[in-house]
Structures are given as structure tokens and as C-alpha cells.
Write a structure and sequence with these properties.
The protein has 3 helices and 11 strands, in the order ααββββββαβββββ. With 204 residues, the protein is of the alpha+beta class. Strand 7 and strand 8 form a beta hairpin.
């Protein structure tokens, strides 16, 4: 499996789940309230990540997010980039000189990055063996595979929750895990972070 494609496939759908609101159930009501408060309280976010694919290969990178409409996932080497500039979502592979774009409004990231996201009923809270952890899984995400997200309870984070990482299993049953570190909320993120250089096409 192409590692670059794995990078984009894993990061894009799971970012959506990161802000999905789970359905209300009696036992989940307190965590539901925390997730709603978390979502409403995050206007910007930065983090480092380590992604590990199904073959055990790891890659590090950085995440920057800014509402409305902007996100940037960058591979540490700078060769791979997934960026939304407010209107368009673009994946760039500088190693092979490829670029693909789609209107942000046609992707699930569109509502996530809106100023007033609405995700009611699109995820569910799962039982967790660790009381310090809140686990959520996407509903109706068959086109992306299975997506499971973990939040740590943290009094200093918006809504009392901090995004820790996620696991994605794509429709081909390839598993990718992402762990975050140095997560910071509502810090200065310049609009220039969501620009990019055009890849140079390689001659055949």
C-alpha cells in the first residue's frame, strides 16, 4: 500500500470524528456534554503526531487547525501535505509531484471546520476500561472504514477533554494508528499556515 495514500486516507476521515457529537444515551450523557463543550471551545489547535501504518512503519508530522475552514497535516519531512484553505481541500505529494484537490464543502471536513458544526448522531461513546479515557467511534462511516478516537480527561483542556489519538481501519482492513503530543488549543495560528507550494511534476 502506498504510504502517502495511507497518510491522507487515515488523517482525513478521523479528523472528522474528532469533532463528531455522539448520540445521547443515559449512561453517556456526561461525556456527551463534555464532547459538546470541547467542540464548542476549540477554535484553533496545534499538535505533533506519530502515524504508524499496518506494516509498522512510522512517520511524524504536525497538525494545525483553525475554524472556519482551515486545517493542515504535514509529514515531518515535508513531502506529504493535506491542507484546507477555507474553500478547497488539497493533498500534495512532493516526492512524486502529485496534487489532488476537491471543494471543501463536498468533503466531511466541510461541516467539521465550519463555525457552527452539527454532528448529532454521527458517533457513539464506547465503553472504556480506563476511567481517564473517553472513546468514540464513528457511525455510518463505511466508506471510510472503522474510526475510533480516544480523548483523555483533562481539566485544563476545552470541555475537560484532550484529543489523544485515533485508530483507523480502512475498507481494505488496513489499520493505521495516530498518537498526538504537545496538543495546544486556542493558540495563535497564522493564515499563512494554510498555503502551500505547488509540487513540481517529475518528468517521465
Amino acid at each position: 500500500m502506498n504510504f502517502g495514500k495511507s497518510f491522507a486516507r487515515a488523517l482525513l476521515p478521523v479528523t472528522i470524528l474528532a469533532a463528531a457529537v455522539p448520540s445521547a444515551a443515559a449512561s453517556d450523557s456526561s461525556d456527551l456534554a463534555r464532547l459538546k463543550a470541547h467542540i464548542g471551545g476549540v477554535q484553533t489547535m496545534t499538535a505533533d503526531f506519530i502515524q504508524t501504518d499496518a506494516r509498522g512503519r512510522s512517520a511524524a508530522g504536525t497538525l494545525q487547525l483553525k475554524r472556519p475552514g482551515k486545517v493542515r497535516f504535514q509529514h515531518g519531512s515535508g513531502d506529504l501535505l493535506l491542507v484546507a484553505d477555507g474553500k478547497t481541500l488539497t493533498f500534495l505529494d512532493y516526492q512524486v509531484g502529485q496534487k489532488s484537490s476537491t471543494p471543501l464543502s463536498r468533503t466531511p471536513l466541510g461541516p467539521l471546520l465550519s463555525s457552527s458544526p452539527d454532528f448529532n448522531g454521527k458517533a457513539q461513546i464506547l465503553p472504556s476500561s480506563d476511567p481517564r479515557v473517553v472513546v468514540a467511534r464513528a457511525r455510518n462511516a463505511s466508506q471510510y472504514g472503522q474510526l475510533t478516537l480516544a480523548f483523555l480527561r483533562s481539566a485544563s483542556a476545552p470541555g475537560g477533554l484532550q484529543l489523544y489519538g485515533w485508530t483507523a481501519v480502512d475498507p481494505q482492513n488496513h489499520r493505521t494508528t495516530v498518537k498526538l503530543s504537545n496538543v495546544r488549543y486556542n493558540v495563535g495560528v497564522p493564515d499563512s499556515a494554510f498555503t502551500y507550494a505547488e509540487p513540481k511534476k517529475r518528468r517521465g
